[in-house]
Amino acid sequence: MNDRLTHLDAAGRARVVDVSAKPVTAREARAEGYVRCSPAVLDLIAEGGLPKGDALAVARVAGLQAAKRTPDLVPLAHPVAVHAVEVDIVPVSTPDLVGVHITAAVRTADRTGIEMEALTCVVVAGLTFVDMVKAVDKRTVLDGVRVTAKSGGRSGDWSVDDV
Amino acid sequence: MNDRLTHLDAAGRARVVDVSAKPVTAREARAEGYVRCSPAVLDLIAEGGLPKGDALAVARVAGLQAAKRTPDLVPLAHPVAVHAVEVDIVPVSTPDLVGVHITAAVRTADRTGIEMEALTCVVVAGLTFVDMVKAVDKRTVLDGVRVTAKSGGRSGDWSVDDV
Amino acid sequence: MNDRLTHLDAAGRARVVDVSAKPVTAREARAEGYVRCSPAVLDLIAEGGLPKGDALAVARVAGLQAAKRTPDLVPLAHPVAVHAVEVDIVPVSTPDLVGVHITAAVRTADRTGIEMEALTCVVVAGLTFVDMVKAVDKRTVLDGVRVTAKSGGRSGDWSVDDV
Amino acid sequence: MNDRLTHLDAAGRARVVDVSAKPVTAREARAEGYVRCSPAVLDLIAEGGLPKGDALAVARVAGLQAAKRTPDLVPLAHPVAVHAVEVDIVPVSTPDLVGVHITAAVRTADRTGIEMEALTCVVVAGLTFVDMVKAVDKRTVLDGVRVTAKSGGRSGDWSVDDV
Amino acid sequence: MNDRLTHLDAAGRARVVDVSAKPVTAREARAEGYVRCSPAVLDLIAEGGLPKGDALAVARVAGLQAAKRTPDLVPLAHPVAVHAVEVDIVPVSTPDLVGVHITAAVRTADRTGIEMEALTCVVVAGLTFVDMVKAVDKRTVLDGVRVTAKSGGRSGDWSVDDV
Amino acid sequence: MNDRLTHLDAAGRARVVDVSAKPVTAREARAEGYVRCSPAVLDLIAEGGLPKGDALAVARVAGLQAAKRTPDLVPLAHPVAVHAVEVDIVPVSTPDLVGVHITAAVRTADRTGIEMEALTCVVVAGLTFVDMVKAVDKRTVLDGVRVTAKSGGRSGDWSVDDV
């Protein structure tokens, strides 16, 4: 772990950190998040009369596209050659969560990591889901957005479950 | 509250809902969210040697810009004339939260609401903060992203605290 | 009908034509187009084992988003407040056409027409369909992209079927 | 030829297909299309008093730029390092076609093909031409947009003329 | 004239200033700038064998498009309904300037001024010109970029020539 | 030095020049520019009551982001893998200049140079500064924008100070 904020130079000015000398290696990052919503929303998604396919499909497409837009959104993120994006959105109804669980996996062969791409994918899929259900439920909450695993690169493999 | 997903037509196909006949009215939306991080991150932000101004300023600027990009990110969101955006990011260290609290307020005089703009502002400010501290803390979590209040428009004023 | 190319000034230089003095009126434009493809593609879309929902849903979402990006793509097009977008993609298998028929309708209350938004929606939905099936059929053709009707604005209602 | 839609996973969900393990090779794609228009439009382009240079130049520039925007428009397309784009727009007046013939060639050294970039270039050049002449001719039609040749990559060289 | 930086709130945080209560009025802004280049560049542009039309046309198109992208580039600028853009680039060879003189005029009917759109148009037209001639002249300089006049809005008409 | 405009083909048509056969090498470009403003602006930036951090930070962030957007703005510029961006904005008060001095350095390991990225960074940082102070000073001028040095690539190292 670093002991300083690498995106700022010695004088505290923001910068895009130099990665030009890092090798091109295969890298993967995984992220997840949740949108909490009312049971009524899940019912509407699940019931036959409702276009479940499209409802979740729009959010998935938004997530895929957003992964590619990451450096446009996050000022200090590098442009990365996004080589694969998968995103899934699964309705969940348990004592802990009524809502959807969003997971994303992003892969590249490039000079820097792609955790931000995975997070951006999750977050924009989540925002899109919120947008689509907000006429039915104003009280949705996007929660628990985090990187769950990464591999490749100098710092080696890492999982949120590592102790 | 609506009992159907308005972004889908009768056959379940996604669409951008027609708002052309709605009047132009003053509207405001507020949203909030949190990034949980390690105490070490807060120390680095707080301590004299570190560029506190820039660290939070970059995330704020990213949030302001993202509010204007909302219809590019959220497929079914309307282009809205964003007339004001304010975003704030405050370090918090309490028993419940070690991290930053992000709040956004967005205003417009247009035909449809701007909750999505407020949420997008919060979320991208949060992602940018995560990006800037990830070399120090890989385990940040973006949490509690929700609309807190809206005013203007046909449906009247609303706050998350309303019973 | 005009007898000159309005997007060029007297000296032949491209410009974005001044519409600031035109009134805000309700306007609609409709457009259509086709993608010709092999029967095998239609079979894959239709058969139970294949994700028909997503295949067409992705193209529809791409079309909706592209309608909003029109002024970014077409240099002399005005930014327009896109207030409604509908797009549909229907598999067709007749002696004249094996492929999909794409239709779009776009509405606004603004100072200038939105034919280009309707066309852009059709075209990008078509490109996205081509992208999704190109591993199966390299010989797809995008055909017959045209405005089919417009209403509102100074020039009055018009349909491609008018004599 | 593949017998499945590669942009969808086994469960039918859209994804950006993984190309990170494919080698970087030189690749080229060519595409073409037509805009049918009235003879009056061709006369205006051709006659001395009219700014022919700019009229076609704007459409060409739009095409060049659009080639670079492909992954922003086509949701499942990969970001590709576009290394060369050429586009031409030639007025044609024959028994078969009164209008313009648009051709594009795009080259890269990257991990995946660039047919979509060539098609996007043609299509946006065509849309821009339609936009510039629509005050004179409302009945333009964009036709025959297809890939004509590709080279490089695992699947080898291919031309639309191959039997 | 204001005596404070309006884009910052009382605590010094950047914000997009609220203009939602300002009336929609017709507004215009004009800007100019120069690119100094070698006489050899002007000769190449002027001589018959060279594509003068395209050389300057590309820069003009880039300027027109950039005017519409202003709020994407300038973080605190409002989205504005750009209703007209004109840009011109004129070769100049005098004792004071060997190069091109770029002028832009932008008009809108909206709630806030469009000086930034006029400046962005000039600047990106200039950058594009620099890009196109940099293989011939590495020492170009973009100079004298300023607003020359504005009209409309609460603050009334203004010209750089006013004393 | 070249004796022709490489961005135009033999017939004078604009194109994105083919760089696919050029090797990937480490490259750097530096650029600079100035914004002239009133002493009152510098006082506001300098004085304790004013949020100096944010004022310059917003302009820096805008510059960093713009460097990544260069191929979107400059039609014939290649997409480049921007691997590092640094930008600084320093208030200056001398007999020659009252204003700010902007410098940028951009690095990549790619197939073509990044002078345009460095210039775009300077120019958009400058525009953003102009935007932030325009309520206080309408007469700002962006001046002296030029490449100051480049290294890497076939043409070797170069500095504006070379004779």
Automatic annotation (TrEMBL), chains A, B, C, D, E, F:
<dbReference type="InterPro" id="IPR023045">
    <property type="entry name" value="MoaC"/>
</dbReference>
<comment type="pathway">
    <text>Cofactor biosynthesis; molybdopterin biosynthesis.</text>
</comment>
<feature type="binding site">
    <location>
        <begin position="76"/>
        <end position="78"/>
    </location>
    <ligand>
        <name>substrate</name>
    </ligand>
</feature>
<feature type="domain" description="Molybdopterin cofactor biosynthesis C (MoaC)">
    <location>
        <begin position="17"/>
        <end position="153"/>
    </location>
</feature>
<dbReference type="InterPro" id="IPR047594">
    <property type="entry name" value="MoaC_bact/euk"/>
</dbReference>
<feature type="active site">
    <location>
        <position position="131"/>
    </location>
</feature>
<dbReference type="GO" id="GO:0061799">
    <property type="term" value="F:cyclic pyranopterin monophosphate synthase activity"/>
</dbReference>
<keyword id="KW-0501">Molybdenum cofactor biosynthesis</keyword>
<comment type="function">
    <text>Catalyzes the conversion of (8S)-3',8-cyclo-7,8-dihydroguanosine 5'-triphosphate to cyclic pyranopterin monophosphate (cPMP).</text>
</comment>
<comment type="similarity">
    <text>Belongs to the MoaC family.</text>
</comment>
<dbReference type="InterPro" id="IPR002820">
    <property type="entry name" value="Mopterin_CF_biosynth-C_dom"/>
</dbReference>
<dbReference type="GO" id="GO:0006777">
    <property type="term" value="P:Mo-molybdopterin cofactor biosynthetic process"/>
</dbReference>
<dbReference type="Pfam" id="PF01967">
    <property type="entry name" value="MoaC"/>
</dbReference>
<comment type="subunit">
    <text>Homohexamer; trimer of dimers.</text>
</comment>
<feature type="binding site">
    <location>
        <begin position="116"/>
        <end position="117"/>
    </location>
    <ligand>
        <name>substrate</name>
    </ligand>
</feature>
<keyword id="KW-0456">Lyase</keyword>
<protein>
    <recommendedName>
        <fullName>Cyclic pyranopterin monophosphate synthase</fullName>
        <ecNumber>4.6.1.17</ecNumber>
    </recommendedName>
</protein>
<dbReference type="InterPro" id="IPR036522">
    <property type="entry name" value="MoaC_sf"/>
</dbReference>
